[in-house]
Amino acid sequence: MPSMAFSDLMRLKEQLGRPLIMGHRGAMGHAPENTMASFQLAQRMGVEAIELDVHLSRDGVLVVHHDETLERTTNGQGELSALTLAQLQELDAGRHFSSEFAGERIPTLEEVLVWARGHALPVVIEFKRNLNVKAIVQAAIALVERLEAGDNVAFISFDHFVPAGLKQARPDWCTGVLYAGRPIDSVELAHKAGADGLLPNFYFVEKDMVEAAHAAGKWVGCWAPNTPREMAYALSQDVDMIGTNFPDRLHDLLKQG
Ligand code: G3P
Ligand code: CA
Fold it and tell me: Is there an atom of ligand 1 within 6 Å of 126 CB?
């Protein structure tokens, strides 16, 4: 099974001679975000990991979805947490992107984790700041335990109490802190949260911060460079992982050297 440990990530990065590619909500530039179609496309495009977001249905099942509400990405309305899994899975989560994807459903986290393990693909699970975040994290720990998938996931959040709590509960599982800004001491920020990795928005990455993170035994995975110019910047800063909506573009850029 693949692992998200720093040493494994760094070894794979060295083997490949380039940063690892993380498919942001799958390959959301080409397919409806956080759907199986999007994850499958990202995998076909050759990513080394996928990123997704999770919420709880009314009946306590973890589902993969970005927003707390349904309007933007489905033909449903209102709060996701007000509907049961059965009700959520009646919704169309593909047509908002294109009629080509009509019929795509909101997947469960279990469905994605099982599929990802079958493809040796680590899953980076983002926990949004949510009034229900503690219950969401507890449900995710229980699910990952049941699937024996602890080596295959990373728990990340802008809410740094999430990785901090997870690290206390499951010290061996991988964690990361998300942020969009340039803290005076990013490594200290990650250290205080007990995080294995730093996940800044690409815009705030600087090579000296990456070097300081490496010196402290932490990896850096930046997110959301989507244009070739943005990707070139991220590559020039020597990050370990890049999360993008367009994994194919990043591969093309890497081939060009
Ligand atoms: O991987 C981090 C990134 O996904 C955070 O922002 O809004 O796309 O979930 P967002
Ligand atoms: Ca996310």
Answer: yes
Token pair listed for 201: 């928005």
Nearest-CA residue for ligand 1 atom 10 is 66
> What does the pLDDT average to over 115-139?
94
Q: Which residue CA neighbors atom 1 of ligand 1 most closely?
A: 223
Q: Is 217 left (phi over 0), alpha (psi -120 to 50) or beta?
A: left
Is the CB of 248 within 6 Å of ligand 1? no
Q: Nearest residue CA, atom 7 of ligand 1?
A: 66
Answer yes or no: is the C-beta of 49 below 6 A from any ligand 1 atom.
no
On whether the pTM is more than 0.85, the answer is: yes
Whole-angstrom distance, CA of residue 219 vs CA of residue 234: 14
Establish whether residue 94 lines the binding site of ligand 1, counting it when its CB lies within 6 angstroms of any ligand atom.
no
C-alpha span between 237 and 137 (Å, rounded): 32
Q: What digits encode the pLDDT tens for the residues 2-17?
A: 566 656 777 888 899 9
CA dist 237 and 69 (Å) reads 36
One-letter amino acid identity for 49? Answer: A
**What stretches of 12-131 adopt beta strand conformation (E)?**
20-24, 49-56, 62-64, 123-127
Closest to 203 in 3D by CA, of 224, 172, 221: 224
